[in-house]
Design goal:
Blueprint (H helix, E strand, L loop, with lengths): L1 E8 L6 H11 L3 E7 L5 H7 L5 E7 L11 H14 L1 H6 L7 H18 L6 E5 L4 E5 L5 H6 L5 E8 L11 H4 L2 E2 L2 H6 L4 H4 L1 E6 L18 E2 L5 E5 L14 E2 L7
Parallel strand pairs: 1-2, 1-4, 2-3, 6-9, 6-10
Antiparallel strand pairs: 4-8, 5-10, 6-8, 7-11
């Protein structure tokens, strides 16, 4: 049984080695990395790494608009303009995604997922995990142990943002930041969507991107208790539009 992560990255050369090593140590043995325009030499860096997993790199040309270097406020404004410009296409289903980044993910991920869904890669589990997201296993040593217990074809991991204030790109992410949202604060927030935000692992046969990149697709599923497994989101720069406090000290480290 294989365990695959598909991701899309741009400008993450300073942190992708840590991310790959961490998830390889959890037991993920297959990484499919889409380079959304290589702006910092990430491709060469990945190919030089000694990671105990298969890592395939898929360079893609730049397409659409980008939000590089924008403040969170400027980005939100640009995203709103993009949604207004493409409102009719999104409503009809002709265009997928909530912003230009998500639209590119839908464009690039589909062809990569197709061989898994068609059974050409054998049996396994697949997830769409960003380079600023780290899966946390609280009660299992490896992802294989956790997934061997699952009976549903779609397994969803609840998300918790981590405070990344003061992030230093020259240091490992996990060495710097460990204070995250609490489940209680999410459940009590007026916007219930934050308490339901997930990322999914699905069986290969379900690896068809016909929902959001968070759920991959709809159907029979289980949402894991976050005390069993969860996902920590190290959003950079730290989000400033939400009034959810960071109250839980929850350091995580790579398995040895």
């Amino acid at each position: 049984m294989r365990h695959t992560i598909v991701t899309m990255t741009r400008g993450d050369g300073h942190k992708i080695a840590e991310w790959l090593d961490y998830h390889a140590r959890l037991g993920f043995d297959d990484f499919q990395v889409v380079l959304d325009g290589d702006v910092d030499g990430t491709e060469e860096l990945i190919r030089s790494l000694d990671v105990a997993s298969e890592v395939a790199v898929h360079p893609r040309a730049e397409v659409g608009e980008y939000y590089d270097g924008l403040s969170p406020e400027e980005r939100r404004h640009r995203v709103q303009l993009w949604r207004e410009e493409h409102a009719a296409e999104r409503a009809s289903g002709e265009l997928r995604g909530t912003d230009a980044l998500a639209w590119r993910q839908h464009q690039h991920f589909g062809p990569l997922l197709a061989p898994y869904a068609a059974g050409e890669r054998g049996k396994g589990w697949l997830g769409l995990v960003d380079v600023d997201e780290f899966m946390v296993l609280a009660q299992h040593a490896t992802i294989g142990e956790l997934m061997a217990e699952q009976t549903e074809p779609r397994v969803r991991f609840l998300n918790f943002n981590v405070d990344t204030t003061g992030y230093d790109a020259s240091r490992p992410v996990l060495e710097q930041h460990c204070r995250r949202w609490s489940r209680e604060d999410l459940l009590g927030h007026e916007d219930a969507r934050w308490a339901r935000r997930v990322k999914s692992l699905v069986r290969y046969r379900c690896a068809k991107l016909n929902a959001t990149v968070h759920k991959i697709n709809r159907g029979q599923h289980v949402v894991l208790d976050p005390d069993v497994a969860r996902l920590h989101h190290f959003k950079m720069p730290a989000s400033s539009e939400l009034d959810i406090p960071f109250t839980v000290d929850d350091p995580i480290t790579a398995r040895t």
